[in-house]
Design a protein that fits this description.
The chain has 224 residues and is an alpha/beta fold. Helices cover 11% and strands 22% of the residues. It contains 4 helices and 12 strands, in the order βββαααββββαβββββ. The protein has a 4-stranded mixed sheet. It has a 4-stranded mixed sheet with strand order 3-7-9-8. About 13% of the residues have low confidence.
Length: 224
């Protein structure tokens, strides 16, 4: 991001390799209101947000949760001072630099600023209907470069299940797909379950990006 995202501005990710951004293929043809067996197609007006089950963190369905014991035990070197907020795991925190969230052993305790995923410290956002591009997500507050927007959540499946779901969605003629790759055998599918991040769309002029972070040893993906 090169500048602040003002309230009301739609989010559109710049996705660094090797992370895959949400795959949402759209047609220019209008569509009718969504139904559950159509896997939540785009609705035709802003009064009908496509239904999905809201979850607060990833649900591992067929993929095995891969945890790094080394990263889980990483403790930062921040010298905590209750009077100085800059010591509360700010930008110079070693864990933050390595894209690892602090754990329960952090010297800053509850004042640690490096627990965005764990605290679900999200920016205020709201879905909106864009027209031919379906649904998008826009900021409800000003957001400065580098701020955490939210985690990308959904069901985590393995490669075989991912292939099966693609075939199933294809048979149902789904117009949008919500897959995001964590690792070779961990793929997030936010088609049925997810959070508001599933509405973030692609753009030729992106204003946010995805990042992979280790949280208690587990890889998770967030938008910044």
């Amino acid at each position: 991001p090169t500048g602040p995202a003002p309230a009301g501005q739609p989010f559109s990710p710049r996705t660094p390799s090797p992370v895959s951004s949400p795959t949402k293929h759209s047609s220019t043809e209008p569509t009718s209101a969504a139904s559950a067996d159509q896997s939540f197609e785009s609705a035709t007006s802003e009064d009908s947000v496509p239904p999905f089950e809201m979850i607060t963190e990833n649900e591992y369905v067929s993929a095995s949760k891969q945890r790094s014991r080394k990263d889980k035990k990483m403790v930062c070197l921040c010298e905590f001072s209750a009077e100085d907020p800059s010591t509360h795991c700010s930008d110079n925190c070693l864990n933050r630099v390595l894209m690892i969230e602090c754990n329960s052993r952090c010297p800053c305790g509850d004042l640690c600023k490096n627990k965005k995923f764990q605290k679900a410290d999200y920016a205020k956002c709201e879905p909106f209907y864009t027209g031919v591009k379906g649904w998008g997500l826009k900021a409800s507050q000003d957001i400065i470069p580098g701020d955490f927007i939210m985690e990308y959540c959904g069901e985590v499946v393995n490669q075989a299940d991912f292939t099966g779901r693609m075939e199933e969605y294809g048979k149902k003629r789904n117009r949008h797909y919500y897959f995001m790759t964590i690792s070779k055998d961990e793929i997030i599918d936010a088609q049925i379950k997810g959070n508001l991040s599933r509405f973030i769309n692609h753009s030729c002029e992106p204003n946010c990006e995805t990042q992979k972070w280790r949280v208690n040893g587990v890889l998770r993906i967030g938008f910044l």
